Amino acid sequence: MMVIMMNDSNLSSMSQIKSFLSESEGIEFNRKYRKEAYRWIEDTLMRFHYVILAKKNKGLIRRYLMKVTGYSRSQLTRHINQYCNTGQLRIKEYDRHKFQKKYTPQDIQLLAKTARLHDSPNGASLKKTLERMAREYGKEEYSNIANISVSHIYNLKLKYLGSNLYN
After folding, report:
1. Where are the domains of the chain?
2. Between residues 27 and 130, the one the model is more confident about
3. Is the C-alpha dihedral spanning 120, 125, 128, 132 positive or negative?
4. C-alpha span between 14 and 132 (Å, rounded)
5. Which of 118, 101, 119, 117 has the alpha carbon at shortest distance from 159?
6. What share of the chain is helix, strand, coil (3-state, %, to 5)?
7. Angle 51-54-55 from CA coordinates, rounded to 5°
8. If residue 55 lies in a helix (H) or strand (E), which one and from where to where?
9. How far apart, in Å, do the first and last CA atoms of the chain sit?
10. Is the dihedral of CA 101, 104, 108, 114 positive or negative?
11. Spatial separation of the C-alpha atoms in residues 132 and 122, rounded to whole Å
12. Are 130 and 148 contacting, i.e. CB atoms less than 8 angstroms apart?
């Protein structure tokens, strides 16, 4: 696959942009990498001083950006707004929400150790043993794992069955 890089640094006036749009009507551009597209959009907005342009010229620049990048009108609106608000255009990093882990690796090790010592009982009796260790015998290390549900005991058994944790 051949990659062609476009050098548009010679385009410096609105009339050149207008003629480019009319002459390239049948041509379709495809962006290869999002990072390069963002950088090019930012450079173009900076080069043409988009923020201080008249409304008519802003529309022309917007059409030019849409043509070259293939982004939709709404996508470009978001990008342009980000540029106008911050002076730069950056890819937003996806931050996946992760629930906080309730049981530490030490808790899971303790659960496995207790299960081995009691000949791997079923989940309900293992839960009762954990509760007894924390409440009746006052073992502080069992205080967190004693609140585990029976179904979560089985989830952990399935997750760690292949490892040496439960064996």
Report:
1. 14-86, 105-160
2. 130
3. negative
4. 79
5. 101
6. 60, 0, 40
7. 95
8. helix 55-69
9. 53
10. negative
11. 16
12. yes
